[in-house]
Write a structure and sequence with these properties.
Structural class: alpha+beta
Number of strands: 16
Largest sheet: 4 strands, antiparallel
Strand content: 25-35%
Helix content: 10-25%
Strand order of the largest sheet: 10-16-12-14
CATH topology of the largest domain: Jelly Rolls
Distance between the termini: 49 Å
Length: 353
């Protein structure tokens, strides 16, 4: 199968990094070469999803170049110098060390480089963790939000472009929590996220909760029911763990599970993201009041596995997955999220021992 729609790989679309060719920079008043895309907009040649059964594809976007229209040559598309991405030249042995080109093949190596960086930093990381980490640090460029309508955003840009800040290690105001486990069929795993009081403090500024999950199920390419095992996550707020356990254990039917009230206003719904094997969602808050849900409840992420009947014989008894949760308070330079969470988790570890 063509790798682009495959569920267990990261598919990368293309963004334009430049919108002025060398000729346009030299002759700014000459309209002969007009770029198709502006900076940080989708490249004109990028491919669109969704994938099988509506899964989000591409997963990510990265810089892959741009095209220009030659207005004097009948609006022909051109891969014009100055609009592409720089890479090594295929004729390097002849002394041509570098070359410029445009295409999704130029975008994909950007993400491969990030994945290799994660593996170099954490040699024991598996493919699930690498995929989950990259998605957890991705967001849609603002230019894409303003140039595409809501229905097209995910089809063209997936979960967005990966941000290097906080990708390889936590910062004081941007913390990454990681869990890896194996889950049996028809089971739930419950994670309480220890949200620091400072994160939900008063004051108007942007704060984000980003959650991602990745697993690698057995897949078949001959049916619409594509993946053997189904693993999803839901983010909920509740007074305590017992309330959450009761809520999910009652949801035995698929429709009951779909109707569980998730924390409001994720940028990708549970139904939409659950169609893929690399899933992510972001919750954004500009302000917390005394009545805000997160100021009066605890935060939980619940991972659920519920396989297709045909897939039970083909799936592992405990299907492996990686879960990543990021808490970000970037506009508060004095935030101490990392220090608070580290102390709290160390205290939990001592209690368990």
């Amino acid at each position: 199968m063509d790798p682009a729609p495959a569920l267990n790989v990261l598919t990368v679309g293309s963004l334009a990094r430049y919108d002025n060719s060398f000729s346009s920079q030299r002759y700014p008043n000459d309209p002969a070469q007009t770029p198709v895309a502006r900076r940080n907009q989708p490249s004109p040649f990028t491919r669109c999803g969704p994938s099988v059964a509506g899964a989000v594809k591409p997963d990510l976007v990265a810089y892959g170049g741009n095209w220009a229209i030659n207005t004097r040559a009948g609006a022909n598309y051109l891969a014009v110098g100055g609009l592409g991405e720089l890479s090594t030249h295929m004729d390097f042995s002849l002394g041509r060390l570098l070359a410029e080109d445009s295409g999704t093949s130029m975008a994909a190596p950007h993400v491969a480089h990030l994945a290799a960086g994660i593996l170099a930093e954490y040699p024991k990381a598996d493919a699930n963790l690498i995929r989950a980490l990259v998605l957890a640090h991705a967001s849609l460029p603002e230019t894409c939000r303003t140039s595409l309508d809501h229905e097209l955003l995910r089809r063209v840009c997936g979960y967005g472009q990966c941000d290097l800040r906080g990708l390889f290690r936590s910062l004081e105001n941007e913390v990454t929590l990681v869990a890896r486990a194996g889950i049996p069929n028809k089971s739930h795993h419950f994670y309480e996220i220890p949200v620091p009081d400072e994160f939900v403090s008063h004051g108007r500024r942007l704060r984000e909760i980003r959650v991602s999950l990745a697993h690698t199920p057995y897949v078949r390419s001959t049916r619409i029911a594509y993946k053997a095992s189904r693993i999803d996550f839901r983010v909920v707020a509740a007074p305590d763990l017992n309330k959450v356990v009761t809520m999910f254990n009652k949801a035995t039917e698929k429709d009951d599970y779909e109707n569980i009230a998730e924390l409001k206003t994720p940028d990708v719904s549970g139904r939409q993201r659950g169609k893929g094997t690399a899933q992510a969602a972001t919750w954004r808050y500009d302000q917390f009041t005394d009545r805000s849900v997160l100021r009066n409840n605890k935060l939980f992420v619940v991972v659920t596995r519920n396989d297709h009947p045909w897939g039970e014989a083909r799936s592992a008894t405990e299907e492996a997955y990686a879960l990543v949760v990021c808490l970000s308070d970037r506009q508060n330079a004095q935030a101490r999220l990392y220090s608070v969470l580290q102390a709290r988790l160390q205290q939990r570890a001592r209690v368990r021992m």
